[in-house]
Amino acid sequence: MNYPSWRAYRVWQRDRDVFFRMWKAEFIPYFVEPLVILTALGFGLGGFIGLVGQQNYLQFLTPGIVVAYAMFTATFECTYGSYIRMEMQRTFDAIVSTPLSIEDVITGEILWGATRSLMTSVAIILVALAFKVVPAPSVVLVPLVAVLTGLMFGSISMFFTSLAPAISSFNYFFTLFITPIYFFSGVFFPLSNLPPVFQTISSFLPLAPAVNLSRAFFYGEVHPGLLWDVAFLLLLTIAFFLASLVTMRRRLIK
Asked: Where are the alpha helices (DSSP H) in 77-188?
């Protein structure tokens, strides 16, 4: 297996340039969608829910939504976006005919997915501030959690993309993998509300440690146990990143 080089930046740069050429279509959803989610759930559903610990429901919900949408952004970018560039536009073929390697292409794609996650997280935090959700100073670390979440789910998604026989295969990926993760990782309710068996299962879902980190940094509840969450995210990121390099090379050179 070859390893990526600094040229992966050029793939990231290419995706960035395409994004900013279409910024009018791409930029508005960054604020509209979190605005709708936080309004509907934070205020609407939150009106029927009491305090979660010492927080109202909007305060509890916001940190989870930040990393959940970091997950969605990177996942969409590295599934549908990457698949279209690979199979329909043949962009990957064009790039690897230059000095860039397949590993550079895959790395650049995942880095761009993580960048999109960063942009999404900052947008949601700004919307939350407009709703007068008052975070602790450690909230400045939440975008870093979003980047790590984006790298992890970008790597997982790229691995699945390398195996997907058709674009319709992503329906299974989202329905059977991403959606359960979204609902059972502590975004909408404490995992302690679940039966013990489901608590154990949920604690090993990829998004759960990201939710723990985001919530801790959002409200200044930092403790040494969070190092395990960081280690878990890094382990999954490295494992799926290396796996995606191998499987994507096999797909592109067959």
From this structure: 82-83, 91-96, 102-130, 142-163, 170-173, 179-183
